[in-house]
Design goal:
Elements (H helix, E strand, L loop, with lengths): L1 E2 L2 E3 L2 E3 L6 E5 L6 E6 L3 H20 L2 H17 L1 H12 L3 H20 L7 E5 L5 E8 L2 E5 L5 H14 L3 E5 L6 H8 L8 E3 L4 H8 L6 E5 L2 H14 L2 E5 L4 E5 L5 H13 L9 E7 L3 H13 L19 H16 L3 E4 L14 E4 L16 E7 L2 H8 L7 E5 L3 H6 L7 E4 L18 E2 L4 H8 E8 L5
Parallel strand pairs: 1-5, 8-9, 8-11, 9-10, 11-12, 13-14, 13-18, 14-17, 16-17, 18-19
Antiparallel strand pairs: 2-3, 4-5, 6-7, 7-21, 12-20, 15-16
Length: about 475
């Protein structure tokens, strides 16, 4: 069992608090690592280190910073298989799926860092009176990045490109459920000391980091309840917060689709990573004209999702991250059944070790059931029949969440109407579609703060203006 440490100022460092937490392999229920529970004193050291390093890092040319980031990304890329295996051992993701997402994360880090080469850090405009107005964007300073357990490598890499390339230094606090792969990223680190720092722990590290006086920006991904606390702490400290929180993403299936192909696509969007994705499909609204045929095909697709230890090549679904999360999923299914829902497949905890739960399809669901209103984060596909596309659109919009949505339709008019769903991103006929060149901001309780392309650099920098009067004035 590996013992993990903080990484502060280029040095592996013991925590100021002797209490330890344990990483449990959710497939075997065996302990695989121990790490500090965290302390405010650890945070103080990490933030001080980042603050000390920031002036020298920001003084480098943009080209130099980008080159150093990409050099580190290249090194990470060489260890993709190893990182995917670590993610599997700490949170259960099948290695093949983990490998694909990590590769995408490395590509995203490189692309987002290169955005700095064309970003307008310094612009000048001639004024009508002959003067000149110059707008300069400087790094905000020290950023805190708090990442979730479901994509530990990808979420770290996704946040860092604009922050580092813009000249900020960073303190990372990964989820206490999956710190192992993040530690490995730091073992591969190839940046100046203090530019990137790591503090391990649970709320004992997270709370003092989010509210620290010397933090200038918090980039948080996690639950709505935790995000509200981070937002409140950021407001009290008067620093920026970018919050990507929970989702209860809807899917609308129109009457004119290829039923089998769409059902298979919805199964993938519902069950990949065992449904532990913030943009998983968690509310499925199907037109009544094709509803029964669609459910039959969705059940077939669900039953093809073999679950087991993700280290095995043929496994499509790993376990849930821990027993607590399995209780959340099971309780939602039980609540739905008690209120009249029908389980078409799955819905029962299997025997044996590991926190497994099968791909599950439920019908006869309604808004009185928690499975249709609260985030599930598990392999559940609840299907509700609607009388028309318009009703599907209405139901899809009835949520306190607004992270993402997906629409399957061949109707040009209906595709145009998809943009009315309150969400940060709407995918049409391809879940998770499009290139990385997109800007979005979650709606409603799913968060705040735009990310992607230049918006990420806007968040990572502070604009100020220099006005130069006309000559002779």
């Amino acid at each position: 069992m590996k013992t993990l440490q903080n990484y502060i100022g280029g040095t592996w460092t013991n925590s100021q608090d002797p209490n330890r937490l344990t990483v449990i392999n959710p497939s075997t229920e065996e302990s695989v690592a121990e790490f500090p529970q965290g302390a405010a004193a650890d945070v103080d050291l990490a933030v001080a280190s980042a603050k000390t390093a920031q002036s020298a890092w920001s003084a480098l040319t943009v080209e130099d910073r980008v080159a150093r980031i990409i050099r580190w990304a290249d090194r990470i890329e060489e260890h993709t298989d190893e990182l995917a295996e670590l993610e599997c051992r700490e949170m259960g993701k099948p290695v093949g799926i983990g490998r694909n997402f990590i590769a995408a994360g490395v590509g995203g880090l490189k692309a987002s860092a290169r955005e700095a080469l064309t970003y307008a850090f310094d612009t000048s405009t001639d004024d009508p009176d002959g003067g000149r107005t110059r707008v300069i964007r400087q790094p905000v300073g020290v950023a805190a990045v708090v990442t979730p357990w479901n994509f530990p490598v990808t979420m770290v890499l996704g946040a860092l490109g604009p922050l580092l390339a813009a000249g900020n230094t960073v303190v990372i606090k990964p989820s206490e459920r999956s710190p192992l792969s993040t530690v490995r990223l730091f073992e591969l680190l190839d940046l100046p000391d203090g530019v990137l720092n790591l503090v391990l722990g649970d709320v004992n590290a997270g709370e003092p980091l989010a509210g620290h006086d010397d933090i200038d920006l918090v980039h948080f991904t996690g639950s709505v309840s935790a995000g509200r606390k981070v937002g409140a702490a950021s407001g009290q400290a008067l620093h920026r917060a970018v919050l990507e929180l929970g989702g209860k993403d809807p899917v609308i299936v129109d009457e004119d689709v290829d039923v089998r192909a769409t059902a298979e696509a919805v199964a993938f969007g519902s069950f990949v990573n065992t449904g532990q994705i913030c943009t998983s499909m968690e509310r499925i609204y199907v037109h009544q004209a094709i509803a029964e045929e669609f459910v039959v095909e969705l059940v077939k697709a669900a039953e093809a999702y073999a679950f087991g230890d993700g280290l095995q090549a043929d496994v499509m679904m790993g376990p849930l991250v821990d027993e607590r999360q399995r209780h959340v999923v099971g309780d939602q299914v039980s609540d739905a059944v008690a209120k009249g829902a029908t389980v078409r497949t799955g819905g029962e905890v299997p025997d044996g070790h590991g926190f497994f739960y099968p791909a599950t399809v439920i019908t006869d669901v309604d808004a009185s059931m928690s499975v249709m209103t609260e985030e599930t984060f598990g392999p559940i596909a609840p299907v509700s029949v609607v009388s028309s596309f318009a009703q599907g659109l209405e139901r899809a919009s009835e949520s306190s969440f607004g992270l993402a949505a997906t629409v399957y339709s061949r109707s040009a008019d209906h595709i145009d109407l998809a943009a009315s769903i309150p969400a940060g991103v709407v995918w049409v006929n391809q879940w998770q579609g499009g290139s990385g060149v997109r800007t979005y901001e979650p709606a409603r309780a799913s968060g705040m703060g735009a990310t992607g392309t230049t918006a990420a650099y806007d968040s990572a920098t502070r604009p100020f203006t220099v006005h130069i009067a006309p000559e002779g004035s």
